[in-house]
Specification:
197 residues, Nucleotidyltransferase, domain 5, alpha/beta
Length: 197
């Protein structure tokens, strides 16, 4: 912010407390979410799609936690050997975020998916199909179909595939997770409260 103020002149930059007060008021009234949703709709329309998506892709990513993160809100992901938190996200077919949840890293993908998919259904009524990886198999598929009228289709890698293979639909969310990791602020979790991540 100080660099920006030096470039444009101090008169152009409001006091940080005033800027934060606006942000806090917008967040409390749900305007930040509304801004995000409107921008996503505009991007989708620019790409020749409907503003509201009809399909999504679900995945999770474990992120190391800094020392400032309380032990009560983090866990150990044995599969990735990471002590921290896990981001559970659903994107549209362009890789744009639809729903996000942050949990301790020891929470399994299927366990977090129930709440995430319920929120997805609530916020995006047009979605009828969600692609997922093998971590979302089992009772979750039947639960989503019966409770949410949502088809969860698992995109699996076949045993005959050797080395790195781009899997249909899954590459989109993997790209989004990669984009998130390019942000220094998101490459490691520094937030005291998970809702702030």
């Amino acid at each position: 912010m100080s660099t920006w103020c030096a470039l444009v002149g101090k008169r152009s930059c409001p006091c940080w407390a005033r800027v934060y007060a606006f942000f806090r008021r917008w967040r409390e009234n749900g305007l930040v979410q509304e801004f995000h949703d409107r921008l996503r709709g505009k991007v989708r329309e620019r790409e020749g799609r409907e503003a509201e998506p009809t399909a999504g892709i679900i995945d999770a990513q474990s992120v190391k936690a800094a020392a400032s993160v309380p032990a009560a809100s983090r866990g150990f992901d044995g599969g990735k050997l990471i002590n921290g938190r896990k981001r559970h996200i659903v994107t549209d077919c362009l890789g744009l975020l639809l729903v996000v949840a942050v949990t301790a890293a020891n929470i399994g993908d299927r366990d977090a998916a129930t709440g995430l998919l319920a929120r997805l259904r609530e916020l995006h009524r047009d979605i009828c199909l969600v692609w997922a990886d093998g971590g979302y198999t089992g009772a979750l598929i039947d639960w989503a179909r019966e409770r949410l009228a949502l088809t969860v289709e698992v995109v699996k890698r076949t045993d005959s595939q050797a080395g790195f293979v781009v899997l249909p639909r899954r590459w989109v969310i993997e790209r989004t997770l990669s984009w998130l990791m390019h942000s220094r602020r998101l490459a490691r979790d520094y937030e005291t409260r998970p809702a702030r991540q």
